[in-house]
Prior knowledge:
By secondary structure, the protein is an all-alpha fold. It has one domain (about 1-60). The protein contains three helices and no strands. About 0% of the residues are buried. The model has no long low-confidence stretch (mean pLDDT about 70).
Amino acid sequence: MDIFIISLRTIIMFIAVFIFFRLSGKKDLGEISVLDIIVSLMVAELSASIIEKPDLPLSFPDRRLPLQSCEGQSPTIRGR
Length: 80
């Protein structure tokens, strides 16, 4: 039963991520900015967390998941 649920969640998240990237309109690597790469990594992390943890709902995932990978890291802003 777990294999079926994980497979179904994987297919659903693949379709959702595929649609997300198709709507972004980036077709060439030269068109991708740093912000696009960061957003892509965050979407990938959130998708992996949803697939790996079957107790999380697909429709409204835990908002803290992307922030858990940043614990203990504090960004610094340098003035010029």
